[in-house]
């Protein structure tokens, strides 16, 4: 038998990968041929090292035709008997292959998603759920019309590798507890609950736990930084992603493990007690009260994350583990029995092989044949060309068979929020301008003349703040680098520039000079009109800014005013006037001002008196334009925040604190 396995994944390693590798190696040992379609990378290399044929694919729908041709070349030499797919894009491609070659199709479901199974169940010969709980979830939530097609084949550890140490001596008083998981966004629930355990341990078991982090991922640096703050005197070691004997050793030399799914089973097979903490739910310390739930849910594969988590659970389980080595040994012995009773590696794969053979034989006896229509939508798409001619624009263009019979729609998604929709039309080209920095995706929709539809992510890219500023500011590189190294928030610079470009104020007054002076001047130049009056009390700062403005040809857009601070005799909120007299700029320094659309305050004046900046609004109030705004840059500080609140109360301005820019207070005239 020649089995084609299709598996799509985002992370380079994980339980899914180990499941595919284990089943592939088992079938190979039984004399069957295996070909795996997967991404290029570490996993593909591991498969090849075991003698497994690999077709590398990015599972990009426009490349399905090309990948199918590679499968055909292998099929022509050694006919494929059956397709075993894993979810999502690999399921889509696997179904195409099965229909193209008229062969059986089976699917493994690893979690609580449905992946269109209810709609396509009649095209699937068998579905394998990794636990009874997941099987029931699919049947119930999907309202499956053929529940008899859904079977349970558990994800099992390799018990020839993951097994107990015959002798394990640990005379140390330090207890080693390992977290074994990927450190990615989809594991954030696991990481958050683990943080609770670490913080609790720093208070109750400080200095007697050694945390070991076995895993890697996009959140690794964040996890390191947070653990350094909350771990107290308990040591934290990061071991990275481990496989094979190195992973086994990490289990065997741990006193306990916190992990999801397959990793729990590997720990239990090594007779190490484990807290089952999955990406969807918390089961807890695997023991007499929890083992049935653990088996049922695939050790945390079901649940509603924080909503179903009972506060204090991991702390209670940690207390049990910390009672004594004897308690840990009893839980380890109990866990080993569970692994041997329900998750026998050989039995599970023999069962899978039996299903393969039965599905193959039953398919051969069926009268109905599986065919792939010649006009299948996925195969009509030949290419998607993606171009970014500028930082703030992107273009996508489809190349398709019979393109005039197709319609196309597009969603622009920024930071997981749809910000633009273009509905179905005949044009296969999409061009759009990008509004600002962020993580962008473009979801493409294609519809044929019969109403069949497919959708997929056609473009995926990031624009960081520095890149966006470089593009939007026509400034010398020296000064852009100055902005990048500034202590001020890059988000603030972007917000300031965007606001001026959109609102187009005639006049802007700034107190304090620096990076924002260049930003404002450049925005005014791009608008083609307007003036910045920048007020400063230090001639040294003014001279430096004059040089910067001249170097950027921005001098014409800025009027720099410098003056000494003088006694301020008008009403003031300074209630410590006996300690420090109220001072501020003279009224003459603010002459000839009108239609002020924006006031930017980024100057503490070195706290020359209490609430030094308070006079700004009363002195400029009569010169404000309609809908004017005041931006207090350092509003996170107590004095500046108090001034904002005084202004809001006394002069009837609406006050809010920016959620995008830390420390920015914005006042709007009513």
TrEMBL record:
Glycosyltransferase subfamily 4-like N-terminal domain sequence ranges: 27-156
Listed GO MF terms: glycosyltransferase activity
Source domain of life: Bacteria
InterPro entries from the UniProt entry: Glyco_trans_1 (IPR001296), Glyco_trans_4-like_N (IPR028098), Glycosyltransferase_grp1 (IPR050194), SAM-dependent_MTases_sf (IPR029063)
Domain Glycosyl transferase family intervals: 191-288
Protein name, entry field: Glycosyltransferase
């Amino acid at each position: 038998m020649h089995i084609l396995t299709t598996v799509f994944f985002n992370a380079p390693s994980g339980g899914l990968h180990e499941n595919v590798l284990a089943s592939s190696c088992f079938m190979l040992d039984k004399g069957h041929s295996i070909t795996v379609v997967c991404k290029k990378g570490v996993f593909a290399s591991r498969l090849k090292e075991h003698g497994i044929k690999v077709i590398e694919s990015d599972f990009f729908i426009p490349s399905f035709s090309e990948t199918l041709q590679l499968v055909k070349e292998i099929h022509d030499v050694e006919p494929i008997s059956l397709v075993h797919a894993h979810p999502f894009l690999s399921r889509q491609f696997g179904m195409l292959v099965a229909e193209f070659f008229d062969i059986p199709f089976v699917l493994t479901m690893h979690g609580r998603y449905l992946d269109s199974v209810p709609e396509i169940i009649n095209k699937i010969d068998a579905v394998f759920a990794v636990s009874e709980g997941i099987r029931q979830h699919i049947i119930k939530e999907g309202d499956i019309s053929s529940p008899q097609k859904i079977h349970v084949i558990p994800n099992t550890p390799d018990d020839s590798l993951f097994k107990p140490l015959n002798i394990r001596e640990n005379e140390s008083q330090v207890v080693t507890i390992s977290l074994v998981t990927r450190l990615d966004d989809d594991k954030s629930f696991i990481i958050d609950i683990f943080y609770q355990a670490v913080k609790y341990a720093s208070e109750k078991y400080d200095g007697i736990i050694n945390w070991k982090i076995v895993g890697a991922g996009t959140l690794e640096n964040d996890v390191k930084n947070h653990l350094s703050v909350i771990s107290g005197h308990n040591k934290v070691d990061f071991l990275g992603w481990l496989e094979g004997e190195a992973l086994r050793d990490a289990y065997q030399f741990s006193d306990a493990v916190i992990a999801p799914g397959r990793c729990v089973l590997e720990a239990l097979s090594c007779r190490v007690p484990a807290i089952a903490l999955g990406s969807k739910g918390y089961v807890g310390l695997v023991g007499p009260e929890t083992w049935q739930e653990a088996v049922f849910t695939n050790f945390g594969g079901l649940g509603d994350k924080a909503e179903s988590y009972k506060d204090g659970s991991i702390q209670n389980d940690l207390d049990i583990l910390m009672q004594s080595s004897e308690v840990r040994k009893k839980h380890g012995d109990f866990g080993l029995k569970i692994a041997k009773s329900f998750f026998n590696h050989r039995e599970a794969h023999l069962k899978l092989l039996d299903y393969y053979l039965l599905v193959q034989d039953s398919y051969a006896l069926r009268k109905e044949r599986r065919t792939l229509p010649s006009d299948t939508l996925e195969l009509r798409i030949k290419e998607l060309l993606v171009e970014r001619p500028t930082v703030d624009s992107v273009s996508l263009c489809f190349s398709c068979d019979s393109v005039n019979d197709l319609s196309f729609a597009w969603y622009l998604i920024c930071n997981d929020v749809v910000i633009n929709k273009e509905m179905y039309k005949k044009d296969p080209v999409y061009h759009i301008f990008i509004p600002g920095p962020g993580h962008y995706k473009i979801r493409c929709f294609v519809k044929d003349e019969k109403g069949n539809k497919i959708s997929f992510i056609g473009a995926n890219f990031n624009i960081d703040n520095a890149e966006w500023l470089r593009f939007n500011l026509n400034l010398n590189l020296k000064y852009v680098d100055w902005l990048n190294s500034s202590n001020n928030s890059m988000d603030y610079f972007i917000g300031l520039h965007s606001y001026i470009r959109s609102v187009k104020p005639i006049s802007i007054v700034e107190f304090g000079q620096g990076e924002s002076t260049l930003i404002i001047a450049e925005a005014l130049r791009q608008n083609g009109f307007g003036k910045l009056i920048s007020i400063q009390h230090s001639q040294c700062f003014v001279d430096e800014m004059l040089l910067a403005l001249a170097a950027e040809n921005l001098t014409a857009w800025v009027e720099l005013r410098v003056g000494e601070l003088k006694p301020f005799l008008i009403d003031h909120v300074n209630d410590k006037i006996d300690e420090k007299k109220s001072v501020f700029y003279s009224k003459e320094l603010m002459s000839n001002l009108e239609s002020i659309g924006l006031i930017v305050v980024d100057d503490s004046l070195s706290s020359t008196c209490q609430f030094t900046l308070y006079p700004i609004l009363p002195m400029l109030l009569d010169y404000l334009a309609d809908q004017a705004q005041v931006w207090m840059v350092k509003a996170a500080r107590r004095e500046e925040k108090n001034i904002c609140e005084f202004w809001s109360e006394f002069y009837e301005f609406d006050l809010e604190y920016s959620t995008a820019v830390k420390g920015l207070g914005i006042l709007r005239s009513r």
